[in-house]
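ZP: hey, is the phosphoenolpyruvate complex queued? I don't see it on the tracker
AM: it wasn't, my bad. submitting now with these inputs:
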Amino acid sequence: MADRTPLMAGNWKMNQDHHQATHLVQKLAWSLKDAKHDFSAVEVAVLPPFTDLRSVQTLVDADKLDIRYGAQDVSAHESGAYTGEISPVMLAKLGVTYVAVGHSERREYHHEDEAIVNAKIKSAFAHGIVPILCVGEGLDVRKAGEQVPHTLAQVDGALEGLPAEQAAQIVIAYEPVWAIGTGEVATPEDAQEVCGAIRARLGELYDAPLADGVRVLYGGSVKSGNVAAIMAQPDVDGALVGGASLDAEEFAKIARFT
Ligand code: PEP
């Protein structure tokens, strides 16, 4: 099995202004330090709102923090008449490492379909930003037992035409919609079932070594109390954390995960 560095990414959603963002990142850095744990084998990232990115960049650079940061969305276009959108060129200038693409809230409230998600992934890669592709089924699909085919269809659509060099770098977050923000976390077995299927699909679409190297995260009501069991699954390489990432101490405990 490839050596996959776990990634713990905090999706702040639409929370924290740029002053609060600076405070939260500082507190996270202190909490990681306080934990007296060796975090060198884990990547910790935050995904603040666009308006916070410049402040976060300044702080991370000035204090040389070992914290990555990213955005929650990206335009499929580089520039032009796209009111309200943020270009990957602009994000790259702000030093972002990651961008979430196809989060269920974007799919639901902004009607993002597979074609848009696919275009955004290509747009991010074109500017050296690693997409965190979010996929996962709603409750009706889960109740029908269709979570694997549903999620794999999202993966197929999102990766359409993506060259292997880029697919090898992508991060995929399996986030069952019924678990996001509900406090109802998937069982470790449920997480493993779909994360394992995603990895197997990468093997079919590309090849086994590529699939073995891609990080597949779980997201949905992850907390310090449930993260260890989920991280113990062979195909789970980290977590995309929403609500709990707004509490620096809790997020640091999640990043520790053992
Ligand atoms: C998310 O927004 O991606 C998420 C997983 O949220 P939460 O952890 O709050 O369920």
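AM: back. Residues 11, 13, 175, 180-181, 219-222, 240-244 surround phosphoenolpyruvate (CB under 6 Å).
ZP: great, adding it to the tracker
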